[in-house]
Design brief:
- This protein is of the alpha+beta class.
- The protein has two domains: about 100 residues; about 110 residues, 3-Layer(aba) Sandwich (Cytidine Deaminase, domain 2).
- About 45% of the residues lie in helices and about 15% in strands.
- Helix 2 packs across helix 3.
- The longest helix is centred in the middle third of the chain and has 24 residues.
């Protein structure tokens, strides 16, 4: 265990939090070491890691409880001023928002309108085409939402190898294809139809079915599945 009176800069390089993260990756760091990176320095009597451990210990190492901390509460710890307190609270808030986003990403897709609502706010007014894929688990809950390509006004490229490679990595059970038409025309082009048939065929062979392909515009959307074309 490190001597709390010895500053981090005097430790062995592999024991310093920043260097440890670079050498071994972020998962190798303890909560105290991660917090020490945030606060940067401790006091002449206590290293940043030791100070972080003391803060964590006062909250029983419960990061959820720490998320309810206030700046004045943190400032009670010697070595934590307003700037460091703000940094800690900002990091905890980012973590909370990440969890919140992950929860939203697990939304269940039960129909084409669910997909449209998931993407319309972002895609309906784009001035260029983008191609996205929703990867789903067996319960039709979203595993991931991936942007495959960005194109011009008239089109974008969808590489089937990349799409199914990602599906395998995610262990997805099925997928939904999505792209937009900046022109506002909801009807699929012949290229859209050809791509959809190709993707459906590959999906059936790989047992990762394509459940739908949506074209999103500012005027609404077109669903291949709803129209009986999948």
């Amino acid at each position: 265990m490190e001597d709390p009176k010895i500053g981090i800069k005097h430790w062995a390089e592999e024991d310093r939090p920043r260097e440890k993260l670079l050498l071994k990756g972020k998962n190798a760091l303890s909560d105290a070491e991660l917090m020490a990176i945030l606060i940067g320095t401790g006091t002449p009597q206590e290293s940043a890691v030791s100070l972080s451990k003391r803060i964590l210990q006062s909250y029983n190492y419960d990061l959820q409880a720490m998320g309810r901390m206030t700046i004045p509460e943190l400032e009670k710890f010697k070595g934590i001023g307003q700037a460091k307190a703000i940094t800690i609270l900002a990091a905890l808030e980012l973590g909370r928002r990440r969890q919140q986003t992950a929860a939203k990403e697990k939304a269940k897709i039960s129909c084409s309108k669910d997909v449209y609502l998931h993407f319309s706010a972002y895609m309906s007014d784009l001035m260029h085409e983008e191609f996205w894929v929703l990867y789903l688990n067996r319960a039709n809950k979203i595993v991931a939402r991936e942007q495959i390509s960005i194109g011009g006004i008239a089109g974008t490229v969808a590489d089937s190898k990349l799409i199914f490679k990602r599906a395998i990595e995610l262990l997805a059970s099925s997928m939904i294809l999505i792209h937009n038409h900046p022109s506002g025309n909801t009807q699929p082009s012949e290229m859209d139809r050809t791509l959809t048939r190709k993707m459906v065929q590959i999906g059936n062979m790989m047992e990762i079915p394509v459940n739908d392909h949506l074209i999103i515009t500012e005027n609404g959307y077109y669903s291949f599945a709803d129209e009986g074309n999948i």
